[in-house]
Design brief:
By secondary structure, this protein is an alpha/beta fold. It folds into two domains: 23-52 and 312-456, Aspartate Aminotransferase, domain 1, CATH 3.90.1150.10; 60-309, Aspartate Aminotransferase, domain 2, CATH 3.40.640. The protein contains 16 helices and 16 strands. The protein has helices spanning 23-32, 60-67, 77-90, 101-112, 126-134, 162-172, 195-207, 219-229, 238-247, 273-286, 297-309, 313-332, 350-353, 363-375, 384-387, 415-430; strands at residues 47-48, 94-98, 118-121, 138-141, 179-182, 212-215, 251-255, 266-270, 345-349, 377-378, 380-382, 389-390, 396-397, 403-407, 438-442, 453-456. It has a five-stranded mixed β-sheet, sandwiched between helices. Strands 9-14-11 form a three-stranded antiparallel β-sheet. A two-stranded parallel sheet has the order 1-10. Strand 12 (389-390) and strand 13 form a beta hairpin. The longest helix is centred in the last third of the chain and has 20 residues, at 313-332. The chain is globular and about 65 Å long. The N and C termini lie far apart (53 Å). The structure holds pyridoxal-5'-phosphate.
């Protein structure tokens, strides 16, 4: 192995200035936003790791492609380029563009899922779950047990629990309209799913005659993990591996804001012509004509090019390495994280770092606020603020884990930015013992973490 650093496989062509707010400005911004990081203006954030969705940098070829965008309402040449790239990648014959991933979910589930049914997934992403539940169906998570153990190091912690899948199909088979597998498993920490597991899911779906869809948002990162971790795949290209993944499924939903390397967009692709034609009818109702689906022609060009670039080996090696590099730096300084790091983010385990803050006082939220206060680094709380279930008596049923996600936008930050983030995390961790919790002052009835107002609980208040 070459010992030299794995460098960014690109040079910078256009730059965007980063905000460097002073500590006083950050403190004031926190007060103004009621200690909710969603309330910050982007211009108050130095390194924004809120999400890797739609935040990446596009290439010169993508920008050049945008100039070629054909904005014809029907039959745009940009659509045919997009369709060709998606067909070549996925093998699915029916390709339906949407404005983002959740629109593909909405249309697919409106067509296939009914009241009282059960959708099985390794872990439903939050928009996927919401769209299943909106249909009156149950969104059941069946990730393998190792996927729920943050400290355990295993190669494919996104795998579906095949025994649990069989039991669910046996018990509820006639109520299961489709099985989904999310690659990589975003809600479970960006952990990959092995080809062997996808194959086992396919076999069970055949046995019970249930369609199998991929939630393919991070298909390229998943393909890279298969290449580097699963026997027999080392000599295949990421594209060949991705093609094999898709060949095991009947269709997929996709957010182009992730491994489409675009700032907006998505698609639904499948083989069943009858289902596709029903989906297109709905698409016309909510998204637009089937050759643009809520996107501009230039977006379709950017996505088509992005789907090609994302499978470049140098890109995927750098991409996964930059996440792993941040993980190694903070873990070697003693900060507990979800292991091994996934494809798009480092998840800091706030329950382990701040054992003195009870879940009712949102330890992961407290940690996320400190990363911002300390260095202008914005992550996202994925713990009891986001997933706790409020009860009538004003308390919460806490979430299973208390995590802060530091998601890395694609091709945007350099190694020195990542070094800076690691130092901020380590400086905050060094004073973890003196940090206090938060309480909610005001909250919405659902998805409260986006808008909740909070205030610090005074440290040593004896609660
Ligand atoms: C982002 C994401 C979605 C939804 O896509 P949007 O483009 O944000 O609507 C669905 N599933 C997974 C796994 C995702 O990461």
């Amino acid at each position: 192995m070459d010992k030299r650093p794995i460098i960014e496989p690109f040079r910078i062509h256009t730059v965007q200035a980063i905000a460097m707010p002073s500590r006083d400005v950050r403190e004031e911004a926190l007060r103004r936003s009621h200690y909710n990081l969603f309330g910050l203006r982007a211009g108050e954030v130095t390194i924004d790791l809120l999400t890797d969705s739609g935040t990446g940098a596009m290439s010169t070829r993508q920008w050049a492609g945008m100039m070629l965008g054909d904005e014809s309402y029907a039959g745009s040449s940009s659509f045919f380029r997009f369709e060709e790239v998606v067909r070549d990648l996925t093998g699915f014959s029916e390709v339906i563009p949407t404005h983002q991933g959740r629109a593909a979910e909405k249309i697919l589930f409106a067509t296939l899922v009914d009241d009282g049914q059960v959708v099985l997934n390794n872990n439903h992403f939050d928009t996927t779950r919401a769209n299943v539940e909106y249909r009156g169906a149950e969104a059941r998570d069946l990730v393998a047990a190792e996927g729920n153990d943050p400290a355990l190091v295993a190669p494919f912690k996104g795998d579906m629990d095949i025994d649990a899948l069989r039991s669910s199909l046996e018990a509820d088979g006639d109520r299961v309209p489709l099985v989904m597998v999310t690659v990589t498993n975003n809600a479970g920490g960006g952990q990959p799913v092995s080809m062997a597991n996808l194959r086992a899911v396919r076999e069970l779906c055949d046995e019970y005659s249930v369609p199998f869809f991929l939630d393919a948002c991070r298909f390229a990162e998943n393909a890279w993990f298969i290449k580097t971790r699963e026997e027999d795949y080392a000599d295949m290209t990421p594209k060949q591996i991705a093609q094999e993944m898709f060949s095991l499924a009947d269709g997929c939903t996709m957010s182009a804001k992730k491994d489409g390397l675009a700032n907006i967009g998505g698609f639904l692709a499948l083989n069943d012509e009858r289902v596709a034609s029903e989906c297109r009818n709905l698409l016309i109702l909510t998204e637009g004509f089937p050759t643009y689906g809520g996107l501009a022609g230039y977006d379709l060009e950017a996505i088509a090019q992005g789907l090609i670039e994302v499978l470049d080996e140098d890109y995927l090696r750098y991409r996964t390495r930059s996440v792993e590099y941040l993980a190694e730096k903070v873990a070697s300084g003693g900060v507990p994280i979800v292991q091994p790091p996934g494809g798009h983010a480092v998840f800091v385990d706030a329950r382990a770092l701040l054992p003195h803050i009870p879940p009712q006082e949102y330890p992961a939220h407290s940690l996320a606020v400190e990363f911002y206060r300390e260095g202008g680094v914005r992550g996202i709380e994925l713990g009891s603020l986001a997933f706790g279930v409020p009860q009538e008596d004003g308390t919460d049923v806490p979430a299973a884990m208390e995590l802060v996600r530091l998601a890395i936008p694609r091709r945007m930050y350099t190694q020195s930015h990542i070094d800076y983030v690691a130092e901020v995390v380590l400086d905050v961790a060094a004073r973890a013992g003196s940090m206090g919790g938060y309480r909610i002052v005001e909250q919405a009835p659902w998805l409260r973490h986006f808008t909740a107002r909070l205030e610090p609980v005074p440290v040593g208040s004896g609660r």
